[in-house]
Specification:
Structural class: mainly beta
Strand order of the largest sheet: 9-10-11-14-13-12
Largest sheet: 6 strands, antiparallel, barrel
Order of helices and strands: EEEEEEEHEHEEEEEEHEEH
Strand content: 25-35%
Number of strands: 16
CATH topology: Thrombin, subunit H
CATH superfamily: Trypsin-like serine proteases
Number of domains: 1
CATH architecture: Beta Barrel
Distance between the termini: 80 Å
Amino acid sequence: MEVKNSKSTEITNPNPKMFFQPKILDDRIAVARPDVFPSRCVGQIEIKVKNGGWHQASGSLISDYTVLTAGHAVKSSNNEFFEIETFRFIPARNHANMPYGVYDWHRMRAVYNGGSRDWALISLAHPAGFRTGFLGTIAKYPVSRWANEGDHFQHIGFPGDHADEMWIDEDGACTAIHDGRQIKTDIDAAHGQSGGPLTLNWSSSGVPQVAGCLSWGPNDVEDPNYFTPGYEDVKTDVWMQVLCDEYGKIHSDDRFGGCSESKSIKEVITTEGMLPNYEVPYIFADDKGPAIRRFSPKFREQWLTPNRMRKILDEKGK
């Protein structure tokens, strides 16, 4: 049967309304799975200062033992270390869930002058990276290159306005270089995220790399926020140099592979990240030790690996 008036028609709105478009001030979102790589390489730092309270920061593993964070997490503005009673690095924390354990410090080197010199390297007493893996790093010199080469950054940390949760700003850029030392960005971050990593290739098919750590920002959350890169206006007494020359080598079982200079572009130094060390079960030697506890070979005979389980089952079946 034929249907009448079946042709398309059109109307026009003579007076369209102008709806209010709110400005989004906070680009951060919660990390859905903080317990998977690379997110699990970022941890919450809790510090109890003698005759003082607890304070919180964020940090990232850049070797099996080494955490990069902000200098003001462990030092006062006159560049002196706090009297730390308790230090806790908690990778991938999600409220009461601490899937990869809690780690104490063994050694730390830091600078904080109350201004633009602000970074710390923490050498842990145990290799958190064996369980979580660790991130690669990248440093460019001169630092002005970060403002000129169009890199897109991410920042991950544990903000105080979302207690014990990992949050991320997935897309940021360098807008200027502050004081010849720090990367000024349009990334959003809050108190508690200090020390958290400024990264490249976080959610892409590339290899995640840490380019800096969060130092400060003039606002509660919204940009700008400032990060301390591996090189500042100098290439010595900076966290990349200390990582390459010293902290990546403190522990003989650290899988840190050293630093390499780009063959195509000079003055770019990188390190490679690692996935967890699946070959080493997480049993600590039962000894007091003068400083550091390590994994003991005497436990190997007690480790239950898939191959050993198959052998046990085969022997029982005979």
